[in-house]
Design goal:
CATH class: Alpha Beta
Shape: globular
Distance between the termini: 35 Å
CATH topology: Alpha-D-Glucose-1,6-Bisphosphate, Chain A, domain 4
Length: about 200
Amino acid sequence: MSRPHDRYQGQRGARPEDARRPVGARGTLRPALDLGALPSGRAMVVVDEGMVRAPLRTIFELARDVERWPERLRHYRYVRFIERALDGGGIVEMSARRPFGILSWPAYWRSEMQVIDGAPGTFGPLIRYRHIGGITTGMDVAWEFAETRGGTHVRIVHVWDGPSVPVIGSVVATTIIGPIFVHGIASRTLAGLTAVAERQEQSR
């Protein structure tokens, strides 16, 4: 069965409130980015997924609202938009901690972000990233959402060929950065947002 990112055709959605959010010296928003389908054939593929016992719209809104991740997720240090786009994405800087017992290792990256809302009659919802800064430059990411009985299935896919280091780049990606750092941060992000979504649903 094909995954949502395999069927992606470049549609994008925007929320009315996004167009009212000023940014930059002239208070303008850039057009939505079009990051295309998630690339195939990359050396590193990291998948984190789980069931969220909340409506799709609830967890999708939490996932797209990245600026509030630091207040909702203890392992996030900050999230800052450098540029905002009409779809709620843009260029965003993120930093999170990867815990190792009582210690933690800070990670930083800058990404292009595209939000496909999945309004009736369109494809989605889907959140796409492409890392353009930090050691993970070139990494592609997709957050996929599918309604299921009793809630929403969320799947986070990271694909990458590794840092641009001759010979060992892909080895570093598949043995260290992917399983230890990418999975370590993504799994905590999904678990944290799942907990927030399920608390919201229980309080209704």
